[in-house]
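Marked as duplicate of an earlier ticket. Keeping the data here for the record.
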Amino acid sequence: MTAPRWKIWGLVFAFWTLLALSYTASSVISMISEGEVYTWIRPLTWNLTNAYLWMLLTPLVAWLGTQGGGGGWSRFWAVHAPSSILLAALEVMVVLCIYWTLVGPPASRPDINFGAFARMQFAYNFHLSWITYGVMLVVLRAIDSQRRLRDERLRNSQLETQLVQSQLQTLRVQLQPHFLFNTLNAISALALADPVQARQMIARLSDFLRLTLEERHAQQVPLSREVEFLTCYLGIQQVRFQDRLTTHLDVSPDTMRALVPNMILQPLVENALRHGLLDKTERGTLRVVTRRDGDDLLLRVDDDGIGLPADGAKDGLGLGNTRTRLDMLFGANASLELHRKEEGGTRVELRFPFRERAA
């Protein structure tokens, strides 16, 4: 139970009070139906005393339930057989003492003493008290089992979330060195041939790494932030490709607040540049499109490069990690597809649920 303790005890008090009142009403109705002279005070005193005493004994019964669990039926009976008898007998004697003190002997037997009254009432009330112990034990064990099951489910859910976050973080860590090594190799090649371009790439790489570190803990970011990453990355590649590369970002305004996996477009663009446009002799064009399609967000990367190989595309680090991240975040609700364009080149299309960042 996650409610405050005072609310729990308030509900318990209300339950036992209503139970006592229902038993009292039943006793009075029975006396009326049998033509007896009825009174409320005696059955009400007995039932309230009995109910509130069991209420106070509830923690003890719950503790005995934990002591008798987990060891098989032999341990169960070893704990509860003597406990139920002793507790039921003790409860009945306490109720009899309180009842006798408050209301005294019954009107039909004004001369009876407490000993005789206790012997007369003990057998029947001990039986009911013993049954009450058993019912309370079953209910309390059921509540405890439900609580344990809920806690276990919550614990498993938290562990699964932590595992997914850890795996996603590992995939991101794999992507960043992959991109970084490629960029440093390009800078190394330009260092002697064109120092000015090399310095430009280093400056743009610094900006890109700054943006990456600012969002290093976020698994999903707004598309506007992802476009900022991508623009910085394309600036690096523009220095590398010079006039051999033309880029177009066709970002729909209604998608700018959509949440996307962090750095989801960069490996796809890098893949298009490296495998589609790098070996193309003439100018190449790269186009990134974002659209909302019903309840889905559509991300598309097009190039007019050399196209897919004849035997089909094979997932490398970038595509493989992208598929894995989509599967972890969205499961069957996400897809990644590669197509050979009729006019030449390749299209990569991502689709996953559209979710906006809260304002």
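See parent ticket for discussion. Helices lie at 5-33, 41-67, 72-103, 114-193, 195-214, 223-241, 266-277, 317-330.
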